Structures are given as structure tokens and as C-alpha cells.
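User: Show me a protein chain along with its predicted structure.
Assistant: Here is one chain, sequence first, then C-alpha cells.
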Amino acid sequence: MSDAASPAPVERAPTSPITDVERDELRRHGILLTSLQELYTWGCSNSVWPLNFGLACCAIEMIAASMAKFDIARFGSEVFRPSPRQADLLIVSGTVTKKMAPQVVRLWNQMPEPKYCIAMGACAISGGPFKQGYNVLKGIDRFIPVDIYIPGCPPRPEALLHGLVELQKKIKGFQLSGPDAPRHLRADIKCDYPVPDFGEHDLQPPANPDVWQAPAIVRSGKG
């Protein structure tokens, strides 16, 4: 009894993911190819609602960005919410004094996830011209995570709009799973942060070690 001849293997064309150019061309013809991740990041990035909250002169520029000349509504962020429980973007616009720092952290904790933070201006980033003052916090990123830094003193409304666009790009690049997933989708990262208290000489703790640590200074010995 002779063995039957085995069928010849069928050669298959190598499969390759569709490129962005091809996808845009299909969209122009009314064919939409998407995924759950793209829908999720698209919805989050185009409906960022800032908290109606300002601290100092940078808040004037933030208010100007919502006026007709600049029109932040073009980017889906015209809804400035008066309650942190209805907002997902905290724009820290101005000088953060140590007396105000606990309130900023408390507002951040009351915001639902996913939430984002923009440090607007030199004062919110590093203390600005008041950096050497005993009563000024040297950067809000010592207590809460900052997604976008906008330098300037104060930055113009165009700079805030640019920072908002960069935040939208960052949100669109989020992965829903894996080590690159945003913090609200990872169980190993806490979303609530300790509110500092007023100590005898400074805030206690002076910084959140899970968010910020003092850089190590390596001093070379004299030759």
C-alpha cells in the first residue's frame, strides 16, 4: 500500500499592518478602521475639561485662552468645571505658596480618573522669581504628577493652547495595557496622593517621594 503524496504547502503573502497613510486614504472614502484603544484615546483627548481654578497672574492668561480671540473651545476644552469632581485637567496657573499647596493636592485627589495636570508658568514649575522665598513651593511636581510643563512668566494664551495640544498627543499615545499604560489603568500606581500638613517650620512631608526625589549631586574630588 503506497503512501499518499502530501499536499504542497501553500505560500501566503506576508501580512503587514496598515499604515497611517493608507488608513487616512480609506477615511477619505468613508471607510473607518479603528480599535477600542483608538476610540478610548480619541474620546479622552478631545473632551479635556479644565478645572475653573487659578492662583496668580498666569490665571489671567488662562482666562484669555477661553475668550473669542484664542477660543480654547476649538480643542474641546471650553467646559471649565467649577467642581473638581467634574473636571479632568488641573491647570496650576501661578505661584503655589506652601499655604495653598495642601489645597491644590486636595483638589487633585477629588478629581476622577483619568486626570491630567499642566504646570503653567515658571512659578508653578519651579517657584519662578519667588523661588528663594520661604513661603513658596519650588514646583507643584513635588506633590502631584505633572504631564505638561509650560515655561514663561507668564506664558501667553498661545503657549497654553500649545500645551493642550501636546497633552492631547500624549493621551492619544496611551496604551490600554502593559507597562506603558496610564496610571489610572495600572494597579501598581496610586492615584491619590498624601495631602501635606503644616509643620513647625515647613510642610510635612516636604515632598511626595513617590512623585519627586531630590537629585543626587555627585561632587568630584580635588585633583
